[in-house]
Amino acid sequence: MNPDAQIIVLDAGGQYCHLIARKVRDLGVYAEVRASETPACELASARGIVISGGPSSVYDPGSPTVDPAIFSCGVPVFGICYGQQLMAHLLGGEVRKGERGEYGMATLEMDPVSDALFEGLGGRQQVWMSHRDAVAGLPEGFSTAGRTATCAIAAMAAPGKKLYAVQFHPEVVHTERGREYLANFVFRVCGCRKDWDPRGRAPMLEREIRDAVGGRSVFFFVSGGVDSSVAFALCTRALGESRVRGVYVDTGLMREGESEFVGRLAGVAVEPAAEQFLSALKGVTEPERKRHIIGEEFVRVQERIMAERGLAEGSWILGQGTIYPDTIESGGTANAAVIKTHHNRVEGIRKLIEAGRIVEPLKSFYKDEVREVGRELGLPSELLERHPFPGPGLAIRCLCSEVDAPLRATADGYIVPVNSVGVQGDSRSYAPVLAIDALDHERATALINRLPGINRVIGSVRTRVPISRMQVRAGFLTPQRIARLPLADAAIRRLSQRAGFDQRVWQFPVILIPLGASAEFPDSVVLRPVDSVDGMTARSVSIDPALLQEMCAELFQQEGIAGVFLDLTHKPPGTIEWE
Ligand code: XMP
What one-character-per-residue DSSP string does 81-101 give? Predict the structure, then answer.
């Protein structure tokens, strides 16, 4: 049984509320998320309230709000990002509507104040920003505690009323002293005691699995990734091998050598289904359609296998390795915007969930926590340390275009008319990419903040012809194009492992985009090495020039490749995967 929550995080939309709750739990204090409109009287037993960030503007009709009585009920309140704007707005301050906003790293200058929340946090520090609007006028009784170059009120406080707020995100790892802000709030301001130990979770999870499954059996899709492997192992431990059947689906969209790896390590049956998936995806270019189709084809495979084996409907349920971020970015929480639909959150799966026919033991865990559970179960590190790989596979790393289209030259670089998905101020963006001829991350961040209409910047590493002579060429999910990707991916993985570079990154997607030099060389490869803790935010990582040249040399030996680029975009504003 979980203890009563000492800290309540009010969900003002998007992913941040859960990240905050988890960071508070990491401090050893049990926290829960509630709807933002929860009446103040239901929050009175908490020791502290946090209002999370979110994609809305306080001026949007229907934007999330809170019961204003929370500001005077004696419980300390900490507003973060949108939470700060909402606090200012509801207490009579001024919020200015932003045009483009501020995304990514910023330098915060904190006053050397000594009250509880900001104690010991004076001086310059790196913070993570993701917002459009900002507080422009303080509510009565508040004073400014910190600022950045573009945000005059980046932190504010009314210590007498125990009200505090910041525009940046202390819950995100890239805010270097973020943990201290949360710890000050939880311990100094709210006086919480430690009551939550994240270790030793496996027995509790196994009990939950047995409760959910009852007398039925579990049919489990195993992908070879960390999440499904850990969830599968938990189910097997909870129910015994005879009641859990694992299947690995070969969708034809897997990395080179993957089916062999899974067969060897997980020891599950391989279901060949490449033709089925590729014909369902024929002519499809739009990312969300790809994701829906792939998710639904998984459901079809499951139905087919059940029918073939004569398994009756009521006697089994489906097991999945869904983890927390999968449900968030698919719009799984009350106020969250749909950024990407995960393959295990499509309509067919939702129906099974509603019918109580799915078990997802890890659905409130984050990647790093899943690895912890896996270690507790004694799974091999060869499996647990694998980089994450998306369920829809290479389909969402093979970008398509329905038409030939020229690049547009600008003073800053070339706009490539290939759209990719981004997350800006917690909303989804789908916009063209800018190609520049420098591998400069800072410039890339500045360009995205300055230029409306792009959400991603790539730096050119090597191209067969000058970028000015390249163009986007019509390209679909054809067997020929798909075949280029596992080859390129395998070459990069091999070089990256040999140089020890794979240990320095959290994930390293290799993407194919239809940016070509000629009919003979119709595609380019984009390298996307990122560092992250949980995939919720990520930093784009640079590659040593010698290694980069080796990678280019290998890729240029492959058929069809016109250029190699490095993705310079952090998350936000670009997501890790392009689609
Ligand atoms: P994004 O691209 O949203 O990805 O920044 C965050 C993390 O999630 C992985 N990812 C997926 N994993 N099914 C999955 O199991 C999916 O549909 C999916 N889409 C993205 C991605 O690889 C990254 O690690």
Answer: THHHHHHHHHTT-EEEPPSS-
d(C-alpha 468, C-alpha 93), whole Å: 50
Q: What is the mean pLDDT of the chain?
A: 92
Question: Which residue in the list 17, 81, 190, 398 is annotated as catalytic?
Answer: 81
Domain boundaries, the chain: 7-189, 201-391, 397-567
**387 has catalytic annotation:** no
Look at the domain 7-189 and name its fold: Rossmann fold (3.40.50)
Q: How far is the CA of 509 from the centre of ligand 1 (A)?
A: 11
Q: Which residue has the tokens 């509880």?
A: 116
Whether the domain at 201-391 and the domain at 397-567 fall into the same CATH topology: no
pLDDT tens-digit readout, 13-59: 766 888 898 899 889 998 888 889 999 999 999 999 999 998 789 99
Cα of 346 vs centre of ligand 1, distance in Å, is 14
CATH number of 201-391: 3.40.50.620
- The one catalytic residue in 171, 258, 329, 360 is 171
Indicate if ligand 1 lies below 6 Å from the C-beta of 388.
yes
Residue 361, pLDDT > 50, answer yes
The CATH number assigned to the domain with range 397-567 reads 3.30.300.10
- How would residue 397 be classed by pLDDT, with cut points 50, 70 and 90? very high
Residue 217 predicted with pLDDT over 90: yes
Q: In the block, which residue shows the tokens 């990069």?
A: 492
**Cα–Cα distance for residue pair 475/483, rounded to 1 Å:** 13
List the structure tokens of 550.
Answer: 């080796």
Measured at the CA of 286, the angle between CA 282 and CA 290, to 5 degrees, comes to: 60
407-437 pLDDT tens trace? 999 999 999 999 999 987 668 899 999 999 9
